């Protein structure tokens, strides 16, 4: 088991990840803020879903989820269809334009990571991926599911303002 000093250093390093996320947020297109990118990423990764499931995956309140969904729907990136099992609910689905936007986000993210990690070996990048995946799993992250679409392979924008989820 790690020593107290190691956990303290780990906490400092995790806190500093915010700077990395901010830098990654700067590459987003002006009409696609982080919350919208998170919606596209999660729909690309998990497929069609109800708003309540999206709110759970985003770990935000339904009102925040609704604002994000309204934003991406207004741009034609998702469709909202009645849920056959419950007509009061809506199923969210990526449109072809949404898939294109998601591919663009993935490309921008991949380019930035390739630039910033250019002096890392493939093994080092693989080790970071494995360790981050394990860290997320240790915290019970429900989003650790294989990507459905190739463009969803870079789940960079899943983190948004954290508020209690109410589904």
Automatic annotation (TrEMBL):
Residues 7-137 form the HTH marR-type domain. One of its GO terms (biological process) is response to stress. Gene3D superfamilies: Winged helix-like DNA-binding domain superfamily/Winged helix DNA-binding domain (1.10.10.10). InterPro entries: HTH_MarR-typ, MarR/SlyA-like, WH-like_DNA-bd_sf, WH_DNA-bd_sf. It holds the Pfam family MarR. GO terms for molecular function: DNA-binding transcription factor activity. PANTHER family: MARR-FAMILY TRANSCRIPTIONAL REGULATOR, TRANSCRIPTIONAL REGULATOR, MARR FAMILY. This is MarR family transcriptional regulator. It comes from Streptomyces bungoensis. The lineage of its organism: Bacteria, Bacillati, Actinomycetota, Actinomycetes, Kitasatosporales.
């Amino acid at each position: 088991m790690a020593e107290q000093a190691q956990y303290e250093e780990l906490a400092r390093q995790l806190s500093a990840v915010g700077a990395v996320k901010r830098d990654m947020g700067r590459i987003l297109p002006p009409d696609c803020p982080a919350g919208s990118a998170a919606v596209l990423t999660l729909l690309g990764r998990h497929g069609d879903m109800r708003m309540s499931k999206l709110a759970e995956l985003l770990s935000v309140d339904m009102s925040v989820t609704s604002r994000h969904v309204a934003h991406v729907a207004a741009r034609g990136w998702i469709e909202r269809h009645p849920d056959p099992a419950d007509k009061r609910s809506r199923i969210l689905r990526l449109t072809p334009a949404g898939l294109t936007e998601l591919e663009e986000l993935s490309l921008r993210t991949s380019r930035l990571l390739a630039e910033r990690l250019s002096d890392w070996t493939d093994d080092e990048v693989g080790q970071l991926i494995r360790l981050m995946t394990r860290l997320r799993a240790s915290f019970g992250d429900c989003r650790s599911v294989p990507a459905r679409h190739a463009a969803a392979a870079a789940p960079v924008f899943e983190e948004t303002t954290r508020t209690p989820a109410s589904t």
